């Protein structure tokens, strides 16, 4: 259905979906860039964040507190996973790291299913963001606009952390040259733990703020994982700006293709990824020679 | 490291498959479960060749499993083909073709990129199967009504039924699959695949067409997946759509890791454990939905503590008990390097028969490399005559290593030209120039660390014997003409003959350095470049290596970069001095020593220190 | 195979499977009838091995993980209640299957449950295991037609009866029907035929409709059926948004719907997909402008989405618990179920219960577990009492002819109890709305 108003609506919608994808992918890319670990449990962390927020919401009744508590929980959960499992894997081949995070992802999903069952868990949007906003040319759920805003702010915060702080300097140094971090005389492991925590938090945070939109099931992260892969492959693995660009591109592809034929939305996404691989194998904003 | 003879493994496999029919029922296995295990096992053979042997972790095997399955099922259910075996074969071919196409895309990248791309491509296949192609695949309903095969053996007709009857058919398929895979693993290609897994850069540097071998492994894995998919349809009389899902690929990866990679039998064992535990946890222990959690935990623990899986763990255990035996410490020493060893004549480079080319062996013209605004090398003219031993020196940061890498085509120049035997090799790949007879030994050892000394040298020699790419999948590696002699001679030359069967990880540092040079030698280069061959050696090791370099220089041209001035001045006939990315001076050792520019820039400091 | 060892093997397997049906039961007394029948026929499927002991085994495969997990668990509860009732000779079972005393033909019913993950392959694998290891005499369980069709084919091949669980596709008793498969619930085309006149009656002719269709056979067939029936009254389709199964975000589809100018939104999605798409449609303000219709009601949808969203929504369903005011058997069923599980049953559970009750009746009337005899007993077309009045199986396609229940979502203020989500507005007799048995190309296979 290609009409002018629908095109504009889908454009906005693609941006909203894309920003959220960008936030999740940023977490994946930071972890990979710094630790050199591809986190296949990232989709599960998106899901876990949502459930953490759900529990906090049940306990407090406040959406803001749910977001805060859920994010902190994910930061800690990420750090603990790094400390207990991932740390053993830095000296092992990348395939082992992929395998173990894959396993962790399954365990997280099944633990959540064990505790919460398969019934959907719902977190309502905060009262002030419920309802619909008219943008003149279209109407759009207020909360989705809020998600767009929050995700954009979160990306900005991540940007500031990465580009304006000492820890960010270290992380970026790690992305440029992982050997260098050790030379800086820094406790590398503490940084790695923190970075894994931040990466997990980015996914978890996205999971919480997205919970009122999708409602939660233990499998809610499954499709996210594959989409974030496409995002980072398009944007460039390990590139923070690449994750943002890739996220928005992916969001727009999914939205705009649906105007023509929704059945091809996902196929289109993969087709674009393949195209990027041929024209620019390192991704749009990736550095040649890495990975 | 003796290899178990092939016939013994084959015989044991056959006996095991027959015995399983009679033993497994008593352990509570239903025939249907066993049949599924065989299909997972067959799917896993291909995956193990790809992941366990070649080191390519693909999360997309479902794409080929599904492709093979649906092509087979489509042909049979629409009565386009009558012969089940024929349809299985076509399905396998279809999967292989699709595998080749996907491989061309996915193998553009390595490591985690490769894994991610396979995930994404497999997902795309699922979406295609489910919706746009549902007219052919039955969408989410799959394709029911896949027939089982019948065989006419003279007057006897065997119509394959369900249950144990199907078992015999599947066991026969598995048997053929495993025999072929065993042959592949023991072929030259198999050796090269493991080399690619252990050190893809070095495999390339000794002259193997790494990318093409990877693609071959990918296609073979896809073919195995295709036939397994076809058999799944035959087994169930129904081709299920979820053959295409990510779950299928993920489960395959987990089963292979549980059983043990690079074993061929690992996936079969992994599938047995997986399916048994799944049923046992669900029904035996009444865990209901928790079964997947338990299996997930088991998997994570195995990856953490028993990465080589059950079979690998068992092997380690056996090896450990054996190692306790005292006579193990009858360690053999590597031979000292003597001057003018007798084997020398026969291992001269193979390019000696080429039509005489009178000019320099290697010539560089105006070679320049720029990184952004920085010049690593600038406008270097350089020529090495046939049979010469050239030394290259220069203070740190002089641009020696970049220059060296340009000569071996590891790094491509920004400007300038490189000629080898008068032939322009600018922009060629490392493997290609190695095949032409130009190779190097590395400053930091680049060995195939999980293999023995013999295997290391053999991998390099294979490139010289077989060229960059050849698919002799079923040839026994000891039937490659001249290979054994070449490996033996190379080892004798570097004095490692007595250490041939020792794993690389057990070698002393000096021995590893010699092996590093042996890898370059085994490619029979006419021009050998040595990057700091003396780095980090003890005085005794250094003396031996200098002697070694003297020995091997006969009949070939060599270029040596080293910080060890004494050695360079002792060995080299001419010396090139680089300074700040440019050519500073060139001449005989005596000339260089006298050169005032060199003294100012470089030697002065060294002389003062002495 | 050694026939003598089989009963023992069966018992061991049953013990292994960790299953137990409630209530002690002595079955020896009624053994002879089946035993005598056993003399007359060559073995077929799991017969006679599966019914030679003093118990018979049913293989149940329902999704307990994945998108349809809730519906699977609900269905399972219905099965388990039925087994309990059959073994105890509960009055409700005896009202449906008058010949039942305790068990089926005096044999205690045991069962095994496997998680099908809503995947045909897993379901087939599990049921094959139940057949070979436990000598199952009956298979059941599905929440999607993909699984039902796959098990239909397995039943045909293994010659073991299969009664479908939840399966709304026309194909299950249409083009993919089999001699050994039976279906209790109605299906897409029936839902459309029953619901369409009501929609026209309530909303008028010549309306503009938008569809949200899940991208699989069930979705496409229901969408086509609805479009066809409504088209007769001048309804037009302004957009048909086909979304993949298990989609997470419906925003782009919903924007297309919002911008389509439709007056009615027909949401054909099922399971969690339906819940999610309705919640998101609400967020997009679509439900304020377009009337929502759910052609085939999803168990627990009101509980998950909330009555404020579902009020006024029209749907077709197999069963709603307030039918207890009309049918005494429904009252018995709802009471027993609520007593055991603590909530009002949804139609998945009712469906599960009825499948077993009708099977028990068919077997009892046949007097043997010999499958062809049981099938013929089904095919007699005997009118049986059920929780929705009188029903019977059609011989030509093995579909139960049964009424379609039309419901409308209640306003929260009209709800008398927490579970009082729907108002039954019509009970449409099955004969009038079910298409001819051969309309979808059903060709039943042979008995042996």
Protein traits:
heterotrimer; A: 291 residues; mainly alpha; 11 helices; 73% helix; C: 448 residues; alpha/beta; Rossmann fold; 2 domains; seven-stranded mixed sheet
Strand order in the sheet with the most strands of chain A: 1-2
How is the CATH topology of the largest domain in chain B named? ABC transporter involved in vitamin B12 uptake, BtuC
**Helix content percent band of chain A:** over 70%
Mean pLDDT of chain B comes to: 88
C-alpha end-to-end distance of chain B:
48 Å
Query: Which consecutive residue ranges of chain A, at least 5 long each, have pLDDT under 50?
Result: none
CATH architecture of the largest domain in chain B: Orthogonal Bundle
Give the CATH level 1 class of the largest domain in chain B. Mainly Alpha
Give the number of helices of chain B. Answer: 23
Identify the strand order in the major beta sheet of chain B.
10-11-12-7-13-14
Beta content of chain B? 5-15%
| Helix percentage range of chain B | 40-55%
Cα-atom Rg of chain B, whole angstroms? 29 Å
Order of helices and strands of chain A: HHHHEEHHHHHHH
Please write out the topology.
The complex is a heterotrimer of chains A (291), B (610) and C (448).
Chain A: H1 4-35, H2 42-60, H3 63-84, H4 94-116, E1 132-134, E2 139-141, H5 142-164, H6 166-176, H7 178-183, H8 188-214, H9 222-235, H10 240-260, H11 265-279
Chain B: H1 6-23, H2 31-53, H3 61-77, H4 84-106, H5 111-130, H6 134-137, E1 143-144, E2 150-153, E3 156-159, H7 164-185, H8 188-198, H9 200-205, H10 210-236, E4 238-239, H11 246-259, H12 266-284, H13 291-305, H14 309-323, E5 362-371, E6 374-384, E7 389-393, H15 400-407, E8 415-420, E9 423-424, H16 430-436, E10 438-441, H17 453-466, H18 483-494, H19 509-522, E11 527-531, H20 539-552, E12 557-561, H21 565-571, E13 574-579, E14 582-587, H22 589-594, H23 596-609
Helix pairs in contact in B: 1-7, 2-7, 2-10, 2-11, 2-12, 3-4, 3-5, 3-10, 4-10, 8-10, 8-17, 11-12, 11-14, 12-13, 17-18, 17-19, 18-19
Chain C: H1 6-16, H2 32-38, E1 55-62, H3 69-88, H4 91-96, E2 108-115, H5 120-134, E3 138-140, H6 145-158, E4 161-163, E5 181-182, H7 188-203, E6 208-214, H8 217-231, E7 236-243, H9 251-258, E8 264-267, H10 271-283, H11 286-289, E9 291-296, H12 301-305, H13 307-310, E10 314-317, H14 328-341, H15 347-366, H16 371-379, E11 384-386, E12 389-393, E13 400-401, E14 404-409, E15 422-428, H17 430-433
Parallel strand pairs in C: 1-2, 1-3, 3-4, 4-5, 6-7, 6-8, 8-9, 9-10
Antiparallel strand pairs in C: 10-14, 11-12, 12-13, 14-15
